[in-house]
Write a structure and sequence with these properties.
Oligomer: single chain
Number of helices: 2
Distance between the termini: 72 Å
Strand order of the largest sheet: 1-2
Largest sheet: 2 strands, antiparallel
Strand content: under 5%
């Protein structure tokens, strides 16, 4: 839609379009119109219709469409930034948990009677062959 209004604004700003007897023919851009549109409906003829089309419709709408396109790009950029911040916070929280566990291990008092050390089973992760 923004592209169509930009093309229309460019057509309206050319010197070939005369305000008194000018005709704007949009048939070369017929692929932008709905299927089945007649060629008569793609012509803007006469001073009043050209003024109404160019000044009243296209110039006002073009500014709004450009602003909305820029706003949409800003929203998408903000969403990407937000997702990057979420992933960075998640990585930071996971790293903090690991650091806290390591710090707790270093601060543990091994000589205290409250710590019960258990023996490790060295064969726990050994591979065993099963007979069938």
């Amino acid at each position: 839609m923004t592209t169509f209004y930009t093309l229309s604004w460019g057509v309206c700003s050319t010197d070939e379009i005369g305000w008194d007897n000018g005709v704007i023919d949009f048939y070369p851009l017929h692929f932008l119109f709905p299927e089945g549109t007649q060629k008569v409906n793609m012509l803007v003829e006469g001073q009043a219709e050209i003024k109404m089309f160019c000044k009243d419709y296209v110039q006002r709408a073009e500014v709004m469409f450009i602003l909305s396109t820029v706003s949409c790009m800003l929203v998408v950029l903000s969403l990407v930034h937000f997702l990057m911040a979420l992933s960075a916070n998640y990585a930071h929280i996971r790293g903090q948990d690991k650091f806290t566990d390591l710090q707790d291990l270093h601060m543990m008092d091994i000589t205290s009677e409250t710590v019960n050390l258990t023996e490790r089973d060295n064969n726990r992760y050994a591979t065993q062959e099963y007979a069938m």
